[in-house]
Amino acid sequence: MHPGASRALAIMVLPLIAITGVTHAQQADAAAIIRDLDAANQSRFENVLSFTDVEHYSVYRGADQMDASAQMTVKVTYKKGVGKTYQILSQSGSELVIKYGLRPLLENEKSINNPATVAQSWFTSANYEMKLKLGVSQLIDERPCVALAITPHRKSPHMIEGTLWVDTRDHALVQVEGLASKSPSIFAGTTHMMRRYANMQGHAMAIHARAESSSLLFGRSVVTIDYSDYQFEIRH
Question: How confident is the model at residue 201 (pLDDT cuts 50, 70, 90)?
Fold first, then answer.
């Protein structure tokens, strides 16, 4: 081969080798992230024996995003092997929204956390196809994050099609956002959901959530949830 042709071929091949190396590294990173997410879910299930927290629910209707049409504050108690129970501490606003919006939401959360089926709602590779979004990163609550595209293996109002944001340092879950893969009822439209997490006692725990949807009964509605005052019993 002519020396000039050899040099030209080398120049063409080197970028391909570099790209292949990057791709393999990205695949390895994605595999490690998914493996750690799976392990974190199992660890929380096995080692968090119980916890309590206070959750404040606010419902906003129509274009008014300043004055809540209904609010509710509840104390949540979780016990391993039992699930969650709710004690309503206070409520105010529209009785219609409380009766047909917030109370069913609490029952739904209780159902999701049934110990027999709770693993079906986890953000794990058993429930979702997960793919690293190449080159996508974001700083969330001062935590550097990468993004995973998630697609549920089955359709459910409890399953989200969207994005997981994961801390680049420890692969902990920081935020999830997307659309519910199935409408909760024939009367409701598309539901956009977001939940943010913080590391507490070594586990990712929810600190804020937001869901926006539309329905024949309520029209456009936004529900926000703020989580506070966590108290834990951890297996040692």
Answer: very high
pLDDT confidence tier of residue 108, bands split at 50, 70 and 90: confident
What are the domain boundaries of the chain?
3-234
Residue type, 224: T
- Among left, alpha and beta (phi > 0; psi -120 to 50; other), residue 81 is left
Of 61, 51, 56, which is closest to residue 208 (Cα–Cα)? Answer: 56
Please report which residue ranges of the chain form alpha helices under DSSP H: 3-47, 95-97, 103-112
**Can you read off the two tokens belonging to residue 141?**
């609550």
∠ CA 67-94-183 to the nearest 5 degrees? Answer: 90
Nearest to 223 by CA among 102, 118, 103, 110: 102
Residue 11 pLDDT greater than 90, yes or no:
no
Domain 3-234 = CATH 2.50.20: yes
More confident residue, 186 or 225: 225
